[in-house]
Amino acid sequence: METTYNPMELMITVAARNLEDGAMVVVGTGVPVAAAMLAQMTQSPNLTIMFEAGGIAPLLPTMPISVGDSRTTHKGLKATSMAEIMELCQAGVVDYCFLGGAQIDKYGNLNSTMIGDDYNKPKTRFPGSGGANDLASLCWRTMVVTPQNQKRFANKVDFITTPGFLEGGTSRVEAGLPANTGPYKVITDIGVYGYHEESKAMMLLSLHPGKTLEDVKANAEFDIIIPENYETTVEPSAEELRILREKVDPSGVIIGRG
Amino acid sequence: MNDTKLNTGIGELFMSPNADEMRGFLRNKKKQMKNKLTTVAEAIDTYVNDGDYLAIGGFGGVRIPTALIHEIIRKEKKNLGFAGHVSTHDCQLLSAGKSFNRCDAAYIVGLEARGLSKNSRRMFESGNVKVTEWSNGALSWRFKAAAMGLPYLPSRVMLGTDTFKHSAAKEVECPFTGQKLAALPALYPDVAILHVHRADVYGNCQIDGILVADDDIAKASKRVIVTTEKIISNEEIRREPGKTVIPYWCVDAVIEMPFGSYPGNMPGEYFSDEEHLKDWLVAEKDEMQLEEFVGHHILSSKDFYEYLEKNGGMNKMKQLMQAEHLY
Fold first, then answer.
1. Is B280 exposed, middle or buried (0-12, 13-18, 19+ CB in 10 A)?
2. Residue B37's beta-bridge partner residues?
3. Rounded to whole angstroms, how far apart are CA atoms A10 and B49?
4. CA A189 to centroid of chain Cα atoms
5. pLDDT, tens digit, for every residue of A83-142?
6. pLDDT, tens digit, for every residue of A164-197?
7. Contact A187, A144 (CB under 8 A)
8. Are A54 and B121 an interchain contact pair (Cβ–Cβ within 8 Å)?
9. CATH 3.40.50.300: does it fit domain A7-257?
10. What residue range is the signal peptide (chain A) (predicted)?
11. What is the pLDDT of residues B212-240, one digit of tens each?
């Protein structure tokens, strides 16, 4: 078993460890679903995986291509509507949502709508919210997995598609979003970040092996808070890598991206 | 509660959320259980007009009414409005046909894990399409509000974001708790096109697996065209009434269309044709190439069966059926 790992394998493994047994999580395709599958096959056999299109608690045979395809209900407990999934989130049942990469600012606000200054004539149009705005508004904790660079870690996102802590402090609650919800962790190829308790600005929690504080700073337009104490990320174990490579993503669709 | 001001989205509201208009329409709608079997061509001719607001069932590449969308392109329907409620391959098709000029967008121009559609992006980056922003949940609840006969539903999404700012939602104060909520206007489409697993000739429909929003869309829309994998007898419907997710009075036209969701996935029946969906993304890189591609697959095909033939016919369908069941 090759125990060296690539950044994608590290991100998925770290993300998976954040999903504890018994939790409920809504995931998207790609890295989030890979992480949820790995968690389910390791420390969290009773993780309830949900999909915004209506699939609840499948035993995923392979990674889905769409959050609505047949795999998302394979041996599942329930197949329902998108409205019901969002209603469950709104009712407070769902612990985590797991969103993929996008432009992100220091308060965890995400852009997946457009690049440019003119909304009516965008330089680049992206899909928009999809379910991301709903999930990040309603689930207790929002986790984001994304590669880290200056472009993605933007001082100001061109469009706030999905709410993080908005302008920081108490602005999220003031906007009317449910109390005690919001961004929880950001997992990148450089480190793991959380948010400062009061200012709600992004803060380093752990640095991946071989990465430096210079890497953290050089790959973000905004200042990331570096606390006195931060950890070094625990490397993926041989067992985690084996399951990830053999069971979660045997054809290397996601981990092959390195 | 605080006295902060309540915001209103600046996006255009394309359809009136007035529930009384729909009540009047439904009162006068003929509700006899009559045989509604027809053809794709006839149904699109009769029920889809230029300028109509369209809702499409399914989930972009899952349980979509592909044959009906192809016919909209062949008949050159124009200036449609549409609900981009996870619109992936359907958005690609409508963009290829340049069929619309306004869109309620929750998820457009992308194909989820497959990547982005170059041509859908061209359409939306042209400045010729009016867009109002929403989230998937918001659009689902807009259909639900209409299905419930209400002018709006309150919700706790979109608040504080640019998605809200470019939507046509309004912040309201809860009369009971004083909390700030986002009021989502009901969405009553002119016409909906759906694909289901089984229906009888009257339009009583059964769906396996996820519903997405099809039940609410059917109740919210003035006219509904349904393609079905299979026509079943009315006796079979009556044997398990709990399975009827769309009742006959919602439906205007029924067409039997096996493999009707191709190249999309049909839960329990066949998986998506990833090769063909990839061909689409490749063809879209160049406008000339796309024109040829659409000409070959859609415009020059006299019907959906010819399109299926061009893509491998029964042999291909068998492979996709096996892929669905993980053989």
1. buried
2. B254
3. 53
4. 13
5. 999 999 999 999 999 997 679 999 999 999 999 999 988 999 999 999 999 999 999 999
6. 999 999 999 999 999 999 999 999 999 999 999 9
7. yes
8. no
9. no
10. none
11. 999 999 999 999 999 999 999 999 999 99
Longest dimension (CA), chain A: 52
For B143, residues 6+ apart whose C-beta sits below 8 A from its C-beta are A83, B55, B83, B85, B187, B213, B216, B217, B220
B/e letters for B17-44, b = 16+ CB within 10 Å, e = fewer, are: bebeebeeeeeeeeeeeeebebebeebb
B106 contacts on A by Cβ (under 8 Å): 128-130
- Does the global pTM surpass 0.95? yes
Q: Has domain B19-270 been given CATH number 3.30.2290.10? A: no
Burial (CB < 10 A; 0-12, 13-18, 19+), residue A115, is: middle
Give yes or no for B215 touching A (CB within 8 A): yes
Res A102: pLDDT: 73
Q: B1 pLDDT band (50/70/90 cuts)?
A: very low
- Taking the CA atoms of residue B73, residue B75, residue B81 and residue B86 in that order, the dihedral angle to the nearest 10 degrees is -30
Pick from A125, A158, A165 the residue to mutate for testing the B interface (most B CBs within 10 Å). A125
Asked if A115 reaches chain B (Cβ–Cβ under 8 Å), the answer is no
* Domain residue ranges in chain A: 7-257
Is the ipTM higher than 0.95? The answer is yes
Asked if B271 lies within 8 A of A161 by C-beta distance, the reply is no
Name the residue ranges covered by the structural domains of chain B. Answer: 19-270
Pairing of strands B223-231, B191-199: parallel
And the tokens for A82? Answer: 């998108």
d(CA A150, CA B19): 48
Query: Would you say B17 and B185 are in contact if contact means Cβ atoms under 8 Å apart?
Result: yes
Mean pLDDT, chain A, whole residue set: 96
